[in-house]
Amino acid sequence: xQRSPADCGFRTPLGSDRHSDAHCGLVxxxxxxxxxxxxxxxxxxxxxxxxxxxxxELINPVIASLVYNAVSHIVSxxxxxxxxxxxxxxxxxxxxxxxxxxxxxxxxCMFPPAAATAGPTTAPQIDRSSRRSQPLTWVVGLLTAxxxxxxxxxxxxxxxxxxxxxxHIFAEPQSELPAADPNLTITVHERRLGNFLNFYSSLTRLLxxxxxxxxxxxxxxDIQLARGLRQWCDEQFWPLQAAVVSLFTPRLHSDRTVGxxxxxxxxxxxxxxQSLVFRRDALQRFLTxxxxxxxxxxxxxxxxxxxxxxxxxxxxxxAYHTPSLVQHVGEVSSLYAGGPDRRNFAHAVPSVDQIxxxxxxANEASRIGLVxxxxxxxxxxxxxxxxxxxxxxxxxxxxxxxxxxxxxxxxLLAVESTSLPPSDDRLRAWMEGxxxxxxxxxxxxxxxxxxxxxxxxGVACVANWEWVQPELHWLGFVDVMLCPTKQxxxxxxxxxxxxxxGWETVYVPWPIDTDRFPFQLRRRCxxxxxxxxxxxxxxxxxxxxxxxxxxxxxxxxxxxxxxxxQLRFVVRSQIRQQQMFPANIDDRPATADNVDLYRxxxxxxQPSHFEGLGLQxxxxxxxxxxxxxxxxxxxxxxxxxxxxxxxxTEVIEVGGGPILSQLMDPRDLVATLxxxxxxxxxxxxxRAREYVERNHSWSAANEILRRALVKR
Length: 712
Hints:
Layout: E1 11-13, E2 22-24, H1 25-31, E3 40-41, H2 43-52, H3 61-76, H4 85-97, E4 138-144, H5 152-162, E5 167-171, E6 184-188, H6 195-209, E7 215-220, E8 223-225, H7 229-236, E9 244-246, E10 259-263, H8 266-269, E11 275-279, H9 280-287, H10 290-295, H11 303-314, E12 318-322, E13 326-328, E14 368-371, H12 378-389, E15 394-398, E16 413-417, H13 424-431, E17 436-440, H14 448-454, E18 458-462, E19 480-483, H15 486-499, E20 504-507, E21 528-533, E22 540-541, H16 554-563, E23 569-573, E24 585-589, E25 603-606, H17 615-622, E26 627-630, E27 642-644, E28 648-654, E29 657-663, H18 666-676, H19 682-695, H20 698-708
Parallel strand pairs: 4-5, 4-7, 5-6, 9-12, 14-15, 14-17, 15-16, 17-18, 18-19, 19-20, 21-23, 21-25, 23-24, 25-26, 26-27
Antiparallel strand pairs: 1-2, 2-3, 7-11, 8-13, 9-11, 10-12, 22-28, 28-29
Helix pairs in contact: 1-3, 3-4, 6-9, 16-18, 17-19
């Protein structure tokens, strides 16, 4: 019976989640070191280990790769209190013998390579840019496969003109091959390997045969390189201290100015592995990475996706140059069926002599399409504000399952979707001419992010974090994550690091249309306003039991009113309440226009248990109402007049994902509001409006969006 991580006696999870990383007793035993920071195994490695550990063999390839990485770290640090550098080197060699990865597709290959003699794994300390008398040593692989219109001869000529003449070709069966040449080494696989196996085995061979080389380059067979590229690279490498460099920069990753930049595009948004260069130490880490080894078992994995995911986990990124130093010229992919999409082309130069004079086309405004509901909800008003003020070219409005839509925005081309989801062809037609699509919280149409990505259209998501979970399939297609709160920015940045997402994280303090919300000076606190909206939706505890409260904290308002009958409340809600309210609560229906919510009342009280954005917390201040809200993120980010102390937290489930809910005592709310009753709030009212004008204006937001969503 196959083992699983759940019943592995060697595994000690580091967190409460069964999918968390774990301490591995097998790694600790092999190391002979009790330092548990060296024996951490990700869940993917544990799963791969259990698939291998079937017959009592304790040091399988996955365990060996974990030990190999640990002893490499010890060597790089000059030793460990429990393991000398010499002992670590011996362990490294011993683990290399265990790293054979027997694969039916590759009976003659070793996974990872016999790297014990491959020299030091620490990064080179030479400053190449200042010591051009010592050029890099290179080894070059070229991957080729059958194609309808082969261009391998043109690619080889381009490699020669760029300065790469000694080339090892790794060919799939029935590939077109060049004539014999003393500068070419040709390896033809006995059977088809597919994309990633060919890529991995080629790099394995190159490293095994060239253990002291500085730079390992692997090219595809359908490219054109800038003339003089190799010598130019000798002067430039390693840019930004990057250990992996892509000489091909698709338009998706290009900049408007000349130079290098370090990106971490992640597995979904990386575009092609046409020309990748690994520093030796990075290649050793890549080939021995447990999750990379696991990828060998999946025939549908692409080389660029595996490399980008590994780079994201490493926290190193990939260096890209603008303009691109390589152009993709193939009609179809060299390693798998199907054709290239619009992403796999570049703003490239034919020669390195033209880099300095390269200029991007004029800085035109991006054309942006919005996708989302136009409904009288917080989400609908977010979409509507973005449509009105966000320089949107067109708006695709999916039908809401139960709510009627608001009026259309004058002057904006809005198309209502009558079927969910529209076909790929209909979406492509709607996107024609767009540079970006933007949606808030969710893509609404399952095929939207994929179709946009493969059409070369950028994908931007405004993250209302409480409805976004790492396992959602569409997250990998997101290029830019627009974060309306600081809490969201920190969370999305953390997900990018922990889960290998490739998006750029941008903080956009969510703007409020202050022209729509006229300032109304509040002079004395006599009535408190609470805006319940739809209540925030049902929530349950992890055991399935209902929480008994909604997101907005209506139950706290009701209990506060019972405890302090002298306090007067106006409650606005879009749902009919079944309970009887105390007499000091004036229960009103929501207004047709959200602007009218804030005409009555003096101080807005929003004791939210959690919020993604919390539009009411900003709208009320724009209307001149001081804010009282929860002393927790993101609520207290909005500079409230008073905060309600949090007495505890609990994890609840909303929308299929866990949420940390803030728990408050209504007696604290009573004390807070009693101190405000009849107080002079004239100055506070003015400051509330000034805060929104200063920190949440559309002019500031549009400038951030302009920089983040550049023309493709």
